[in-house]
Amino acid sequence: MIKPEKQLTMPTPMAQGPQFKVPLRFRDRRRVTIYLTLLALAYLTLTTLPTMVPEQLDLLAASQTFLQNIQIMFFHPALSNTTFVQLLQALLESVLLALLTTMLGAIIAFGLAVISFRQFVPAWIGLGIQSFMALIRAIPNVLWVLIYSVVFGLGANAAVIGLTFHSVAYLTKVYTDSMDELAPDAIETMRAMGLKNGPIIRQALIPNFIPSFLSWTFIRFEINFADAVAVGAAAGAGGIGYQLFMSSSFYFNFHEVGVIVYLILVFAILLEIASYQLRKRVMGNQ
């Protein structure tokens, strides 16, 4: 048998498409825009900050005074212009203010979230509600309290309405986002079984929504407590914020400021522990 000679193989040319040069992508342009904006803000800050500093300012002396005040606050807390019982009562007032505004905001926000849920209403209704809530959230919480102070006067009424107003806008957003995580197929299946919106909300929406509801509501309660401390002095709403304002700006007693700060920190830690335990229990029952 005659063996064939060594065969010659010709390389097969591979088809190549047209060569394109990739232009600057959109995200690259966006990144450049962000960098330019940050540079512009940094330039404006560096050029305007020296004009805001008084000419008589002694930076070294100011820094030493600041460190001394911090040392007095955290290492030598003491009371002289008020009593510990009065501070506890003031703290309770701020806690109740935050609790009331959070509960009202949660109830109203849940209703608005259901109304704006895309599976229940046309898209334009949900978009309109969310856009209005975004406009409310764009204005700081304390500013809403000051706006209502013009109508109702300085006091707890303006604080309750202002904090509730902003809480509704915040919670409506996060509640709606949590509801959107529910699979649309589940709702369509329940509708195919003849169920209306009411049973769907009770049997499908709320059971899957409870963990997120608790988490976001506790977060909002923490925010409202911090804002209640702030508006206690700014809007005359009383509470621990008013005591903090009097101690720091009226009496200039930083020993007393330290006691108030420690009380606020202790409550914040207890609130975090309670939030974790409650959510753990709810998740365990499910």
Automatic annotation (TrEMBL):
GO terms for biological process: transmembrane transport. It is a multi-pass membrane protein. The chain crosses the membrane at residues 32-53, 91-115, 146-171, 200-218, 225-245, 257-276. Its main location: membrane. It is found in: Cell membrane. Residues 91-275 form the ABC transmembrane type-1 domain. Belongs to the binding-protein-dependent transport system permease family. This is ABC transporter permease. The lineage of its organism: Bacteria, Bacillati, Bacillota, Bacilli, Lactobacillales.
